[in-house]
Amino acid sequence: MDKEERKTINQGQEDEMEIYGYNLSRWKLAIVSLGVICSGGFLLLLLYWMPEWRVKATCIRAAIKDCEVVLLRTTDEFRVWFCAKIRLLSLETHPFSSPKSIANKVSNGHAVHLTENPAEENRHELSKYSQTQSQEIRYFTHHSVKYFWNDTIHNFDFLKGLDEGVSCTSIYEKHSAGLTKGMHAYRKLLYGVNEITVKVPSVFKLLIKEVLNPFYIFQLFSVILWCTDEYYYYALAIVIMSIVSIVSSLYSIRKQYVMLHDMVAAHSTVRVSVCRVNEEIEEIFSTDLVPGDVMVIPLNGTIMPCDAVLINGTCIVNESMLTGESVPVTKTNLPNPSVDIKGMGDELYNPETHKRHTLFCGTTVIQTRFYTGELVKAVVVRTGFSTSKGQLVRSILYPKPTDFKLYRDAYLFLLCLVAVAGIGFIYTIINSILNEVEVGVIIIESLDIITITVPPALPAAMTAGIVYAQRRLKKIGIFCISPQRINICGQLNLVCFDKTGTLTEDGLDLWGIQRVENARFLLPEENVCNEMLVKSQFVACMATCHSLTKIEGVLSGDPLDLKMFEAIGWILEEATEEETALHNRIMPTVVRPPKQLLPESTPAGNQEMELFELPAIYEIGIVRQFPFSSALQRMSVVARVLGDKKMDAYMKGAPEVIASLCKPETVPVDFEKVLEDFTKQGFRVIALAHRKLESKLTWHKVQNISRDTIENNMDFMGLIIMQNKLKQETPAVLEDLHKANIRTVMVTGDNMLTAVSVARDCGMILPQDKVIIAEALPPKDGKVAKINWHYADSLTQCSDSSAINSEAIPIKLVHDSLEDLQVTRYHFAMNGKSFSVILEHFQDLVPKLMLHGTVFARMAPDQKTQLVEALQNVDYFVGMCGDGANDCGALKRAHGGISLSELEASVASPFTSKTPSISCVPNLIREGRAALITSFCVFKFMALYSIIQYFSVTLLYSILSNLGDFQFLFIDLAIILVVVFTMSLNPAWKELVAQRPPSGLISGALLFSVLSQIIICIGFQSLGFFWVKQQPWYEVWHPHSDACNTTRSLYWNSSHLYNETELDEHNIQNYENTTVFFISSFQYLIVAIAFSKGKPFRQPCYKNYFFVVSVIILYVFILFIMLHPVASIDQVLQIVCVPYQWRVTMLIIVLVNAFVSIMVEASVDPWGKCCLSWALGCRKKIPKAKYMYLAQELLVDPEWPPKPQTTTEAKALVKENGSCQIITIT
Questions:
Q1: Which of 498, 561, 750, 883 is labelled catalytic?
Q2: Which of 121, 221, 296, 576, CA to CA, is 20 to 30 A from 569?
Q3: Residue 387 near residue 306 (C-beta atoms within 8 A)
Q4: 561 is known as an active-site residue
Q5: 53-67, 872-886, 1173-1187, range with greatest mean pLDDT
Q6: Interaxial angle between packed helices 1140-1162 and 1071-1091, expressed in degrees from 0 to 180 and rounded to the nearest 10
Q7: pTM, 2 dp
Q8: Which of the 8 DSSP states describes residue 357?
Q9: Burial call 279-318: b when 16+ CB within 10 Å, e when fewer
């Protein structure tokens, strides 16, 4: 086998990884051990940080099949390395298992897909009982998932449950009987315990992990160095700071673990009943469940400990933990294809497509419905971390690294500082050798330069701004679980909004109905609750076709269904358990109109039994429900009017879908026009249909009939028109975003024209803008896929369609105002089906459509995520705002996801708003921008602090001097820490501006700003350092020097030689040191003020009172000790006395320095760009972001946007003149 082999696991999935095999090598291990000893343990740390080096340094390549260690690398842009140890699972240890057969199954890949018949498997095992030869399976665990070696595919693969490759038929035929105990034991051995374990690491473990962070190691190195150099005070200050930082970080990490642990622990261990093969029922702990077990759902409900598919009965489930919607959902049993009258073919079971039949882990079953004597049963399909909740927890435990330019640039910047430190390091060594300094001193001083250049306080300083922003967000009701993302939110330039409940009010109001009689629409009617209609099929459909249920006596269910049911004023009654037992079959839910609506009053019969005997009473029983499915866009029920022989089928759903399932002769001719009129006005339209079923369909047959058998050949009954009002704040918020040049996109599950209408109402599409509908059709009957382009009728009608070109395409803009390119005059709208076809067959068009796509209707949850990805692919920073219901994936994938629901689904989203209003979006972007600018300010300030101090020390090293211990302490603690923690306090600017903050540290203006300040500071420091030597009173300082007295005594010559060495062995007290100390102290404050920019992203710094007060106090203090020396302070800070006129001269140097610094910083924005573009040559700059570049290209593209009534075919662009035109919307 090839030793260099490389395989891929989880192919095509989000967590796809390359895998390499290694075996431990003794001689390599010996060499590494020696290296560790020689390097004083540093090599060990390096190998701890780099798993790839660790494995390669101690192991040799081996075939994956026989290796001891695997090295994994993600295939995404981050290329993260992991390593895992191969373990062996011995199968002979278990009394129930027959090792040979099991091992065969695993090696044959059977364990990977559990599709075999458990009973057969069991017989197969028992026959092999006698064999005792040892069998072992190789596996490794990565991110809480076990990967087993699979001989069939010659690779590792994780154990799948019944959620892949299992047909609906086999779930009934092979898995509905339950497992034998032997089979159960065997599976438990492989699948392990069914629990989502979030181990809360001990404080000690977390501490070790935190302390071994490269930065803390560097701080430890600095502290040891300072202690050898007797800088005890500053060392102590850094130790205290590090301890505070480590403790706060440990506290927040542990708190998150505990929170997650508590969230998961709720259902970790409950007692459940499972059915075994011989009909017996056994009670076991939920932790013992394995895929294939048949679980009995208790009457009074439970919290699901696993994912399971219902095969008997129905359940009402609260799925708010997963979806964010607190509306109870009705789950029905999986259709059994073998019993169906019209077979569905052998459809494969999939938890996503069959989610209406699947009970998900962590969701709460509120109550169950059942046949008498028959239990409500569900087959376990996934356990542990494979469940939907397990995957959610995994994504929180092992998040994808967020890639943000700021952090990448920060590392580059640190590298530059390290390079500068290297130069200083070499300079110090050479200078010290030339001046014949002791070796020990040389080592300490040269290493000291490194600790000065790379400031140990940097991480604390960088996070300060984010922590403050998080606190400000909390005040306005936005909670954040991923603080690093606050900075990224400052970059957002496109926000996707969900429509219902986000842009519009949550509930819908019934506006009216429009019935159809004899294939003709009647006039719209407002009141449905009247005697005329009470026995009509239309009202019967409204009364029965819903998924409402009574929970503790209160009607609950989908808000739309509730509104519809309330409009007719009927009463819903559900059977109690006793009644169900009495009638020996599942008792239907019964609906009936209130007494006063019935034409003739009948004698009151209150007891349920009497109701069945009084045919005069009009009531309808709901016999079977086919729940609403977003994929099918409809729901249907089979119902029966009391006393009728035949049953009725009622269906409601999206009008286009319903009309297509009705007899064409029952659909009015003007159906499309009427529908369009309503949807254009922004109404939500639902169509109803009905048909009588054949009398041969008995109650029992109906329970097993397939959906498709019922849902066809219907009679079209008319439309229900619901109104979905815009939220009050929506138009204003969207206008703010547009003014700030932030694009807005609508992603909704609703009808296309309704969505376009709402987009126009809320100002997302302006009245004069054109809307181009892209209708993509998949390849069919040998024809290629194609897109038909229609222009939706705009409000300002255009006289002839060719005039669109001149109007719709903006005049070519200068490249400076590229941002304005987004403000174009046409928008694309498409539905989810078209979006999928375009993604699959028109890859080259995707970026162009992303540039102007504004309305995406009828989008499924995974399509929302794909849309966010497509937008990110053209370099947009995407925000997503949704109510958490079906937006989880998109909220997680976006750069900044804000969930408007406070339910547990908000775990998926980095931000959660307490108030369900989109006004949180501009607030979050403002705070993000402020935090981003704060990060830049702090970074620039820290860079200058290290360079100023580095230069001060380098200048003083040249005369074999240095800054004193208390001078360092004063600069680092009193000036730097105070300034850094107060300069981050600037609140965000009041409104969003069109200008956008730079995305990285390495941008023209920023580099220009930092470099110019470095040059200014170095210049003025050097000026002071060399000028003091030119003063008439200057001399090499000694204890008896007295430059303050102009009448200087002359006896010092003889004495200074022996005194100096005794008193100041470090040679700290001298005129140069004092001059450099004063000038540099002022320089820190000058750059702090210069860099504390306010507008347009933050409030001006004079409004940051803490900062202003701190800076004033520091200025006053330094001025005071400079102009009016105090003996005790001078003694502590080791400052020497200098003549008064030199003090005034230093003040003038400082004032000029301040003036120059602030003037240069003020001119950075206009001048920085000019200088940099001049330096880079006068070539025309290609915009960095793909979408800007694309916008430039499209301006000169005569074929774009597509003309109305044209068709684009896959692989070729065809202009049709009339042969292939599609009827357009007019």
A1: 498
A2: 576
A3: yes
A4: no
A5: 53-67
A6: 30
A7: 0.73
A8: G
A9: eeeeeeebbbbbbbbbbbbbeebbbbbbbbbbbbbbbbbb
